[in-house]
Write a structure and sequence with these properties.
By secondary structure, the chain is of the alpha+beta class. It has one domain: BirA Bifunctional Protein, domain 2, CATH 3.30.930. Helix content is about 45%, strand content about 15%. The chain contains 10 helices and 5 strands, in the order αααβββαααβαβααα. A hairpin with a 2-residue loop joins β2 and β3. α3 packs across α9 and α4 packs across α5. It is globular, with a radius of gyration of 19 Å. It starts with 11 loop residues before the first helix and ends with a helix. The mean pLDDT is about 95.
């Protein structure tokens, strides 16, 4: 069993940095404050990823916690502005994505952590899946509605999490518009999340709290992995 830890990874300085970045989203300010980024976001986030790795392995051996500073679980803070109307160069939140081992060659669910001023949440699922993957998930819901309900409306998931994301205006034409789970068949995203407060994020033992949330999402993640034919 992975030992619990009371280590604190993130401090209030993370939120102060992100708030200041939001107000000064330009390269000159960031260059002058890069030490704050490294000390209060980059290094704590990589330490968090490293500490979560053995906990993630207990939840599922098919997801990866990669603590490399570039190309790993931590999202880059630099925005891709090539096709965006908003040309501000930096993201104003911390994002960590624990990807499935098949993520490079398949649309696979992942676990996620989002930390920003006034907005923090943790969860897992598939966000904006391909048309094929979304169809497979909807077909799996129709094929076994009781399993879908157990995964999303009972146990720890129902106590801690809720489904979110965008929806179609109508159920797909192949499905029954009066189906008992019509609202779920209209989903374009299949993602469960738990809201977090700033005090949650900076509390000792947050890595274990995050692990509990990921375990609560496990039935949904198993359902989605089965639907898109990747191992859980």
């Amino acid at each position: 069993m992975t030992p619990a830890t009371k280590q604190t990874f993130f401090g209030p300085e993370l939120f102060s940095f992100l708030e200041d970045l939001r107000a000064n989203n330009n390269r000159e300010w960031f260059a002058a404050n890069k030490h704050r980024y490294e000390n209060h976001l980059l290094e704590p986030a990589l330490a968090f990823i490293d500490a979560f790795a053995p906990r993630l392995a207990k939840i599922s051996p098919h997801f990866r916690a990669d603590a490399r500073p570039s190309g790993g679980s931590l999202f880059r803070i630099y925005r891709d502005t090539r096709f965006a109307k908003d040309k501000s160069p930096y993201k104003t939140n911390l994002g960590i994505h624990f990807r499935h081992e098949r993520a490079k060659d398949a649309h696979a669910p992942g676990y996620y952590l989002h930390i920003g001023p006034g907005e923090a949440f943790a969860g897992g699922g598939l966000w904006h899946p391909s048309t094929d993957a979304a169809t497979r998930i909807r077909e799996a819901i129709v094929a076994d509605p009781q399993r879908w309900k157990r995964a999303t409306r009972s146990g720890a998931f129902a106590k801690r999490m809720e489904l979110g994301g965008d929806s179609l205006k109508r159920v797909p034409s192949w499905a029954d518009a009066e189906h008992e789970l019509a609202d779920d068949l209209r989903r374009k995203d299949f993602f469960g999340s738990a809201r977090l407060s700033g005090s949650d994020v900076v509390a000792p033992g947050f890595v274990d709290e995050y692990a509990r949330i990921c375990r609560a999402a496990a039935p949904l993640m198993q359902f989605l992995c089965d639907a898109v034919d990747v191992p859980y």
